[in-house]
Amino acid sequence: MDIAYFDCYSGISGDMILGALFDLGLDEKYLINQLKKVDVSGYKLKVKKIEKKHILGTDVLIELHGKQKKRDFKEILELIDKSKLDKEIKEISKKIFSRIAFAEGKIHNINPKKIHFHEVGAVDSIIDIIGTVIGIKKMQLSNIICSPLPLGNGFVECSHGKIPVPAPATLEILKNIPSYSTKITNELVTPTGAAIISTLANQYGSMPLLKIKKIGYGAGKTDLEHPNFLRIILGETQSDFNYDVTTIIETNIDDMNPEIYGYLVEKLYDGGALDVFFTHIQMKKNRPGVKISVICKNVDVEEIANILFKESSTFGIRFYETKRFKLKIKKRKIQTKYGPISVKIGMLGNKIHTISPEYEDCRKIANKFNVSLKDIYEIAKKKIKQ
Fold first, then answer.
1. Which residues make up the CATH 3.10.20.300 domain(s) of the chain?
2. Is the per-residue pLDDT at 160 higher than 70?
3. pLDDT tens-digit series, residues 121-135
4. Which tens digits make up the pLDDT trace of 39-76?
């Protein structure tokens, strides 16, 4: 199993992640060409090798030109939706921005949709976030583990004036994520860095037993007493499975209008749910009921709980951590005589174990050509096996 371990001994930010990815071998021209699919201008990406305390890494500078437009949350989502990026990159990028919007909204008591991002809505932050997601997908870093995050102290200047370190938005985003205080009087974890890693990481803790294959160093902008880098370590374990830790949230309901369940499920998926399912149960006074179960990342527990309380008739929920083994997943887009179909491939070791064509692609083709949906699935599966 391949693992990317984010060793955040000096914190994490958007440019540090990009720097580490370039240091690992992400092609600069590839990223620049992909970023052209987003309607953002007035910047130049500068990538160079840099030495800090006798350790060589990669520094990323987003050089801005001319007057920059500040965008609110809605404008950023529209910018991403209108881009020519892959669907998966769009969805992950929007999740990262949503984390920041909800954090800022809670701090300032504003509806997240009305949040004006200030620094985070600037071009450099947009490039940091979308560029990171592009790079992570290109390098197929699907199993990410992150170290506990070190938090600096002191104060930092922003559009609101002088605020304490860690920034309030950073702390809000880092709920349920292992963090610790340091004596360093600098901002080590930025809101952008916190939002990216809390969206991408599958679990947090010490580096597992790994056969190390590659190491990338992404430079921070501040000179500290120690080498200021984010270190990404690529390695493999002997397991044939991917592994992560999630949370299961449950609640029992016997008094809700059945028409509400469908809407609730949509809201839960929008809030970050990985899976939602119902179990028919028997409740007190022999009433039939429904157990709603939601699987989500640990960082999404509070958001999922808020949705359940707001959109269902529950008076209480229970939740607990669970560990998962998963097949290694590869995604491919294959060409058939009817058109392209996205396919998810589950790998057990080096062998194909499960093939799952994308339902929406198959459904559209079946309707367009009046062909059996079952036949379209079989065509896609046979194409993979060839």
1. 327-385
2. no
3. 578 889 999 999 999
4. 998 899 999 999 999 999 999 999 988 777 778 888 89
**CB distance 299 to 175 below 8 Å:** yes
Give CATH superfamily name and number for 243-316.
Transcriptional regulatory protein pf0864 domain like (3.30.70.1380)
| Token pair for 131 | 């560029």
Computed over every residue of the chain, the mean pLDDT equals 92
- Is 327-385 a domain of CATH 3.10.20.300? yes
pTM above 0.85, yes or no: no
